[in-house]
Amino acid sequence: MVASAQRPDWVPTVCPYCGVGCGVLAAACRGGALIKGDPDHPASHGRLCCKGMNLGKTLEPENRLLRPRIEGRDASWDGALDLVACRIREALDRYGPESVAFYVSGQLLTEDYYVANKLMKGFIGAANIDTNSRLCMASAVAAHKRSFGSDTVPGVYEDIEQADLVVLVGSNLAWCHPVLYQRLVAAKTARPQLRVVNIDPRRTATSVAADLQLSLRPGSDLALFNGLLAEIERAGAIDRDYVARHTSGLDEALMAAKAFSLAEVAEKTGLAPSDLERFYALWISTPRVVTLFSQGINQSVSGTDKAGAIINCHLASGRIGQEGMGPFSVTGQPNAMGGREVGGLANTLAAHLDLENPDHRAAVRSFWQAPRIADKPGLKAVDLFHACEAGQIKALWIISTNPVDSMPDADRVRAAIRDCPFVVLSDVLSDTDSARVADVLLPAAAWGEKSGTVTNSERTISRQRAFRAPAGEAKPDWKILCDVAARLGWQEAFAFESPAAVFREHAALSGVAGALGRDFDISDLAEIDDAAYERLQPFRWPRAKAKQGGRFFRGGSFYTQDGRAHIVATPWSSCTADPTAAWPLRLLTGRVRDHWHTMTRSGTAPQLCRRHPEPTAEIHPADAERHQVESGDLVRLTSPLGAVLLRAEVTDATPEGSIFAPIHWSEHYAAQARIDALIPADCDPFSGQPAFKAALVRLARFDPDWWGIAAAVRSLRPGCDYWATARVNSGWAAALAGKDWAEIGLEILGSDRLGSLMTLESGPDSRFLVSVENGKIAALLLVGRHKTRITPAQLANRLGRDLNESDLRLWRKDAEGGPPDPIVCACYTVGAQRIRDAITSQQAKDLDSIGRLLRAGSNCGTCKPEIAALLTETA
Ligand code: SF4
Questions:
Q1: How far apart are the C-alpha atoms of 315 and 408, rounded to whole Å?
Q2: Using a 6 Å CB cutoff, which residues line ligand 1?
Q3: Which of 186, 356, 690, 773 is the one with CA 20 to 30 A from 834?
Q4: Cα separation of 47 and 43, whole Å?
C-alpha cells in the first residue's frame, strides 16, 4: 500500500467529492498522495477535475482529529465509546427509541451507511436517521418513487453522449459535476449536431456549451415543464402506445399542464415566447433527449413536482430507458446513491424496500434477526433538528457532516444542537463549526484511510480503497458504529470484521428485496470473498440473476403495484415568495468551481483556494448601481434570520433582482459568511428537502474604516468585522476590513503563537507589521485607510523568507503598482490577464493553442469554460 518515492504503488479508488464518481489512482507519499485519473474507470475514463486532481494535498490537514475527545479533553476509545453507549441506553430506557437520532452523510461509504441504518431502524427501533443527502436530492428520490414506484435512475452516463439533445436544468454541471460536463462537451465536439440547452436563472460556466440559454425566472421551472407537456400533446408527440401499455394518469397531468397558454408560460417564466417555442420545438422534434437535473430543481418547496414534471414529459413521449434518452437526476454527493440503497433516509428502508410496507418491514426484520423494526418514517433533517430544539431528542449522533453550517436556518440548528443533552460527532477534523457544539468527538478514518464501496449517479458501484494508514487513532465509521452497537448489547448482529463482511450482508439483503420485486438487487455478490471484494471492479447495479446493469423501463415494468408508471399531475404553484419593499432581492445559492460543501476538505488545498479566496456576492449591475456598490466592495446581506458580510462581484450573469452567493464558507474560513444562516427552513412537503434558493434578502454596502491583508505560517482567525482566510503554499492568507482603526495590531490576527513583532511602517493612513520567528518572516499585516492592490496571496509569498526590511518596503511599492491577475487555471496557476495577453499578442485562437502556450486548461480541464469565455470576450 505504501509507495516508494521511485515507483508509486498506484491503488485504484474513487474521488470523494461529487456524484460523478470518478476513478482515481492514488499512491501514498510523504505529506499526502500522488493522484491521477484511472483510465479504466467507466465514469471518468482517466479524467479528473481540479478537486480530484488536488486530493493528495488534502490528506494532512492541520486540524485533524487524532484521538477521541470528551468535553474538549483527550479520552481513550473505550472511555468515549462507553460514554456514547451509556447515554444512548439511558435515552432509550427513559424516553424510548424516538429520543435517539443519527444525522449522517453522503460522504459515508455504503458499508458505514448500512451499519448505521441497521442499528437505528432494526435495533434502536426508530427511523430517526437522516442524512445531508436530504439537502441535495431528496426531491428526486420522492419524484422517482411517486412516478416509478421505486427510486430508480433509469439511464446511464453514456446516454448523455448518445443523446441528440441534452437539457440541463438547475445544474451548473461545468462546476458541480465537471467530468460529466467534459464528457458532454467532448461528445458535442465529436458530434456537433448534439444540442445543449441550459436552463438556469444565471449564466454560468455551463452556459458556454449551450446552444440555447434559458435564463428563466427563479423557481418557474414547473411552468416551463408543464408547458412542455402541453406542447408535446399539441404537437401530437405523445407516444400513445407506451402511454397505453405502461403508464396511468396522463389525462389528469395534461389537464394541470394545460392550465396556462404559451403566453402565460412566457409570463410566468420571464422567457421570450420565441425562446420558449424554440425550446419546445427542439425537445419535441428530438427523440434522443436527456433532461438532466440537479439542485436547482430539487432544492425547492415544489422540488418533487418539478422533478415529476420533467419525468412526465419523458413518460408521455416514451423517451425513457433507451440509448440517449431519459430524465437524469445527478447527485451532489459521492455516495448519495449508496445511502439511498441502504435506506439511509428517514423515510426509506434498506435495499429500496418501503418502510411503510408491512411485508417489507417483516422481511428486513427477519433478515436482521432484529428485536424490533421502525414502523413509521423518522424525522427528516429539518424536523430532526427541530425535535432537538423541542427537547425530544436526548442523544444525537452526527457522522461525517457539518450541519451547523449546511442546514437552513443554520443559527437555529446550532442552538438546537447545543441544547441537545448529548451530542456525539464522528469526524475527521477537530474544529468544524459542528465540533464546537458536540460533547464527544470520535476520530473517523478519512478518504485514503478507509475501504468500502460507493455508488455514483448512474448506479455504478465502485470500490473506495485505503492506501495509507489511519491518522492517529482514527477508525472507520462502520467499526465505530459496531463498537457502540456491541456495547448496547447487540454484539452478534454487529460482529462484522471487515467492510467486505458488511457488503456481503448488504448484497444478501438486496436479494431479499429482489425476491420481493424491487429494483435494487446485487445478490450475485452476496457470497463474495474478501479477496474478490478487494479486486471488485466498478459495476452498474442491478447484479442479480434476473438482470445485470443496463437501463430501466424501456418495456415498462415499473415498480408500482400495477406495474405502470404514474404520470402525476403537477399543478403550478409559485414556490418562491415575491420580493417586498423590506426584502427586495432574491438570494440564489450554489457552489463555486473549486470548493466543496463547507470546505472541510477543499479548503485545505492551496490550489483549490486560489480561484475563490473569499466569499462573494454576485450582483447584477443595475442592483449594484441602485445600492452604490462596485466590485471589490463589501456588502452586508440580511434576511429575516441573519446577516453575512461578503465581497461584491458585479456581473450581469446574475439576473437583476437576485444575488448569488456560494454556500461554502464557515466560521473557520470567514467572519460572517454562513449563507445557510439566511435561509428559512421551508421544505418540499413530499421530500422534506429545504428550499435553498428562495430566501429574500436586502443588501447594503459596508464601509469599513480600514482595509487590510494578512499572511501567517499558521492558521488565522482574525478578530475584525470582515475577514476571509485561504490556504496558500506557505501558510494562510487573509483579507480583512474593520471599523476600529485605533485598535489595529498584529494581535488582530487571532494568534498568540507568532514571534517577535516589528513595525515597518506606522503612519496616519497605513500600517505594515511583520512578525519574525528564528529570523524568518512568520506573519505580515498590511492595513490602510484605502484598499491595497496587493492580494493576500501575494503577501503570503513573503512568508518564510529572511527578514530584510528595505527589501520588504521595496517589494510592497512594486506590488502596489501591479494589478492582481485572477487565477483561471488552478492546476498551472494561470491568470486571466496572461490568457488575454496570449490571445491578443500571441494570437491564441482556441482552447488547444491556449493549452499549448500556457498549459492552462490542459490538465483537468475544469477551467475550459472560463477560458472559452475569455476567448470570446477578447476576440
Ligand atoms: Fe471528483 Fe471532479 Fe470527478 Fe466530481 S468530477 S468525482 S469532484 S474528479
A1: 34
A2: 15, 17-18, 20-22, 44, 48-49, 51-52, 177-179
A3: 186
A4: 9
